[in-house]
């Protein structure tokens, strides 16, 4: 009985606790530092990834191509391996444009989700509203489109971005095989729906 | 100024020289040659290089692979570099092998996939001269011939504005270019093409 009560208390505490508390981050003085994602920042580079999407039990694959155009636009195109375009989006500072989308995918719910997922992935600069540390991790909290994001830096290298809501991780972006400001491996993992997007640099 | 005029003239003239429209008679000869070639085709094996052109990119995206075709419509389209991915149209099934992860789609009941299979099979042989499906224009390009096929079916023209197929003097397909409505395109250049050479069954196994 006592064990049960303790468990309930722990659960209650955990559900009220903030995300930084839950994962044991230590808050530091907020210097409103720049939050920087360097992985799609070079205008001279064509970023090309083999993409594998898993939505519940269904699997899709193709190629994702990203290009930074000038200082204000990122273009992102998804094609099949054989080159047929599935969608083609432009991301601006605070705007989003659909250049093309396959008719079958032209649904608001899908487009909104893709917009949210990819705009966070491509966003280059932001400002931290809170700063934290944990061992060799530097964590910066920021906001995009009214959603909270935590950027995890290990030895100054961005290794993870977490979209958080009410203490829970909603979407986690993992970056791996990082070299010269390019992440060869990117995994976008949704925690509330069974959707994973795996990118492998080619 | 004169130099510029000369240059412009040269470019314009050069352009006309590079690609001239065929006469109806020449078009008929080419069409018959390709059809005869397609009729005697039992199998094709070939390497290919694919160039994906998107206007905003600095470079085309290049991938390489192998094609195997067995009459009437078994096709294996396999990418080897920079990733391993293959699709195999065999009977009523489309088999996919995505870097070792195998899956398949039943195309028996899917009209769009069936049409796609027919389209792929006919475009590798070049035999797409069905005027009810395509608006067709014929060009001469040096020693080779180039034929433009613009789909009439609105479902297909949503993806592809035109196929440009280049034939050598024998009537073999050397190049297929699929142009999207936005003018971005996928270009496939064939090499080491072998006609009617026995292809081991293992190639078409899944």
Tell me the number of structural domains of chain B.
1
The top-level CATH class of chain A is Mainly Beta
Radius of gyration of chain B: 19 Å
Global mean pLDDT of chain A: 90
Q: From the structure provided, what is the oligomeric state, counting identical versus distinct chains?
A: heterodimer
User: Which percent range describes the beta-strand content of chain B?
Assistant: 35-45%
Largest interface: A-B, 26 and 25 residues
Number of strands of chain B: 12
Helix/strand/pairing class of chain B, anyone? alpha+beta
Question: Distance between the terminal alpha carbons of chain A, to the nearest Å?
Answer: 57 Å
Query: What is the helix tally of chain A?
Result: 3
List segments of chain B where confidence is low: pLDDT < 50 over at least 5 consecutive residues: 6-17
> SSE order of chain A, as H and E?
HHEEEEEEEHEEEEEEEE
Largest sheet of chain B: 12 strands, antiparallel
* Poorly predicted regions of chain A: none
